[in-house]
Design a protein that fits this description.
Keywords: DNA-binding, Transcription, Transcription regulation. The chain is built from nine helices and two strands, in the order H-H-H-H-H-H-E-E-H-H-H. The chain is mainly α and about 210 residues long. Helix 2 packs across helix 8, helix 4 packs across helix 7 and helix 5 crosses helix 6.
Length: about 210
């Protein structure tokens, strides 16, 4: 087959599954299909899902757990007990005195567990709480001086952890991973607040719509 035709066909496949992708994304995608870094060892621990969706989610889940374990190791001696606390501090810093509920939901916590974590961090002098002038029912939070210092210390360590976890990937591979997975994060981050309290059957039906729901 003519090489131009092959390239056009490959582009058509990529565009169909990644409508927002550009030419740079396609090149990374195409090269990743042709050359992969092989590492010896089992793909995942435990039971290997027999369907591709489950295998992908298990790989993502195991990477997430491993990242949390190493990140928590990196945080020892910083004043933080777990990676979720770092996420909370960074959210407060970036959002500039947000409401407590905004911080909790931005970090994908339930209200009760998120409130407990904020209270513990307040007792340790990392954040301060004050009344919302516009809504007396709400509370806002800000970092203390100690909290700001902890963020700077932890940011360096978390950056090192991220570089360590992805050291086997080229920058192009990392860009491709982001391109392929970002829409999942965007979609479900927006849906999650509306799905809380619903049954899985309701959630599944609303997400899948008229597609194959088997």
């Amino acid at each position: 087959m003519n090489k131009t035709v092959v390239l056009v066909n490959e582009w058509g496949k990529f565009e169909a599954s990644h409508p927002d992708g550009n030419i740079d994304d396609f090149c990374r995608y195409y090269l990743a299909q042709k050359q992969g870094r092989k590492v010896n060892g089992p793909l995942v621990g435990g039971v290997v899902p027999h369907f591709i969706d489950g295998l992908l989610m298990k790989i993502i889940g195991r990477i997430s757990k491993l990242n949390m374990s190493y990140a928590n190791m990196a945080l020892k001696g910083t004043g933080l007990n777990q990676i979720e606390e770092f996420g909370i501090l960074v959210t407060i810093l970036q959002e500039e005195k947000p409401k407590k509920t905004e911080v909790i939901y931005a970090n994908l916590f339930e209200l009760s567990s998120g409130s407990d974590m904020l209270n513990r961090m307040k007792k340790r002098g990392l954040i301060r709480e004050y009344d919302d002038k516009e809504d007396k029912r709400s509370k806002r939070v800000a970092l203390t001086k100690k909290g700001e210092e902890v963020v700077e210390l932890c940011r360096e360590r978390i950056t090192k952890n991220a570089k360590m976890m992805t050291h086997g990937l080229s920058d192009d591979d990392k860009e491709l991973c982001v391109q392929l997975l970002k829409n999942i994060e965007i979609e479900f981050s927006a849906l999650w607040p509306r799905h809380r309290g619903k049954s899985f059957e309701e959630v599944y039906g609303s997400v899948m719509g008229g597609s194959d729901q088997k």
